[in-house]
């Protein structure tokens, strides 16, 4: 799209909007788009909040006034296909204690900082209508979750929350006859004690599986507007600002989801700018095997101005309580950083070198790659 924009002189965002997927369009996996595409609405909101048009004009003026330091900006929409494996399984085991109605839960997914445990607790609390401080989650176990699927691809939190939700519904079905006899059916502790007195099993397990639970795949739509500053002489890049937006549905936990979206974006910034893997040309041995020569993004690589927003156009009925997964979808948004860097290099080549041909900038856009692509040479060092 950017190449087409360069050839026609039309803003790349305008070309992208003219070619958006609509319901019924064929996809790369030989299926067809089934859900509506909210990107055009999301872009309208982002154009206003990010001031993309105004900033682009400011960048053009900046680049005209500066020879060796250039800025670039790029507006990139993405679609992430959230496809469940039909053989995936994520288990949830819930035990309720009769003395105080407290709950101990374990799930098959692994908490690794993505907020899986917190979301599971919130789902149980909402479904059973009890305070979150009544619920404690313990470590995963092969006894309660044998042969659980791998936690990854943003499936862990969503799948474990769905399994916990189904386990709660099984439990409430057992408790239903007792609850109907109570004058105050919302008294959870009393309900638990009465069920225990009637020898009703207060432990429940659910093996979550997309096929058995009739869980369907869906799409996650995202946007990024990235602005960078590039030192052409050294190849150093600074991400000045990034505006992110994701179609989250009804977020289960906005604090967690903001962290997941921004974390995925920062992770991808390394993929697109610094994490270069080199092999020895003869032996094939990896040469970038330490932090001396393999550079993941660090604190100073985070955009100076990072803004994240959610889009929730309509209830997402395929997710847990209307939510969508977060984390991996935003990794795609790092492409906007690469495109913004190319914009800056293209500006240098056209303004300083009077070269207007299209350039190919492969990831990662390391300082060496940027200097090489810019084709800057000593004869241009003229005061």
UniProtKB/TrEMBL annotation:
<dbReference type="GO" id="GO:0051537">
    <property type="term" value="F:2 iron, 2 sulfur cluster binding"/>
</dbReference>
<dbReference type="GO" id="GO:0016491">
    <property type="term" value="F:oxidoreductase activity"/>
</dbReference>
<dbReference type="Pfam" id="PF20256">
    <property type="entry name" value="MoCoBD_2"/>
</dbReference>
<keyword id="KW-0500">Molybdenum</keyword>
<protein>
    <recommendedName>
        <fullName>Aldehyde oxidase/xanthine dehydrogenase second molybdopterin binding domain-containing protein</fullName>
    </recommendedName>
</protein>
<keyword id="KW-0408">Iron</keyword>
<keyword id="KW-0411">Iron-sulfur</keyword>
<keyword id="KW-0001">2Fe-2S</keyword>
<keyword id="KW-0560">Oxidoreductase</keyword>
<dbReference type="GO" id="GO:0005506">
    <property type="term" value="F:iron ion binding"/>
</dbReference>
<dbReference type="InterPro" id="IPR037165">
    <property type="entry name" value="AldOxase/xan_DH_Mopterin-bd_sf"/>
</dbReference>
<keyword id="KW-0479">Metal-binding</keyword>
<dbReference type="InterPro" id="IPR016208">
    <property type="entry name" value="Ald_Oxase/xanthine_DH-like"/>
</dbReference>
<feature type="domain" description="Aldehyde oxidase/xanthine dehydrogenase second molybdopterin binding">
    <location>
        <begin position="45"/>
        <end position="303"/>
    </location>
</feature>
<comment type="similarity">
    <text>Belongs to the xanthine dehydrogenase family.</text>
</comment>
<dbReference type="InterPro" id="IPR046867">
    <property type="entry name" value="AldOxase/xan_DH_MoCoBD2"/>
</dbReference>
């Amino acid at each position: 799209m950017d190449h087409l924009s360069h050839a026609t002189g039309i803003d790349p965002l305008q070309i992208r909007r003219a070619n958006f997927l609509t319901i019924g369009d064929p996809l790369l996996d030989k299926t067809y788009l089934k859900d509506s595409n909210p990107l055009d609405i999301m872009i309208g909101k982002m154009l206003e909040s990010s001031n993309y048009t105004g900033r682009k004009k400011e960048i053009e003026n900046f680049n005209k006034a500066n020879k060796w330091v250039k800025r670039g900006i790029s507006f990139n929409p993405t679609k992430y296909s959230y496809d469940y494996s039909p053989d995936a399984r994520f288990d949830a085991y819930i035990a309720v204690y009769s003395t105080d109605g407290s709950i101990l839960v374990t799930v098959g997914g692994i908490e690794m900082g993505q907020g899986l445990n917190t979301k599971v607790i919130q789902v149980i609390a909402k479904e059973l209508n009890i305070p979150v401080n009544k619920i404690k989650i313990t470590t995963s176990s092969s006894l309660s979750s044998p042969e659980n699927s791998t936690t990854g691809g943003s499936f862990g939190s969503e799948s474990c929350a769905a399994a916990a939700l189904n386990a709660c519904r099984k439990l409430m079905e057992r408790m239903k006859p007792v609850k109907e006899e109570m004058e105050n059916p919302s008294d959870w502790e009393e309900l638990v004690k009465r069920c225990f007195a009637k020898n009703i099993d207060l432990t429940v397990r659910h093996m979550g599986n997309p096929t058995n639970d009739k869980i369907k795949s869906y799409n996650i739509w995202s946007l990024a507007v990235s602005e960078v500053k590039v030192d052409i002489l050294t190849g150093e890049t600074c991400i000045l600002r990034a505006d992110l937006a994701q179609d989250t549905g009804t977020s289960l936990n906005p604090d967690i989801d903001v962290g997941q979206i921004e974390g995925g974006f920062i992770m991808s910034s390394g993929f697109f700018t610094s994490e270069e893997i080199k092999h020895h040309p003869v032996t094939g041995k990896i040469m970038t095997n330490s932090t001396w020569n393999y550079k993941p993004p660090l604190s100073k690589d985070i955009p100076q101005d990072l803004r994240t927003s959610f889009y929730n156009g309509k209830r997402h009925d395929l997710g847990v309580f209307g939510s969508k997964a977060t984390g991996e979808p935003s990794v795609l948004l790092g492409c906007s950083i690469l495109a913004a860097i190319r914009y800056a290099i293209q500006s240098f080549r056209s303004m300083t070198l009077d070269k207007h041909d299209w350039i190919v900038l492969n990831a990662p856009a390391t300082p060496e790659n940027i200097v090489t692509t810019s084709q800057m040479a000593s004869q241009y060092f003229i005061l």
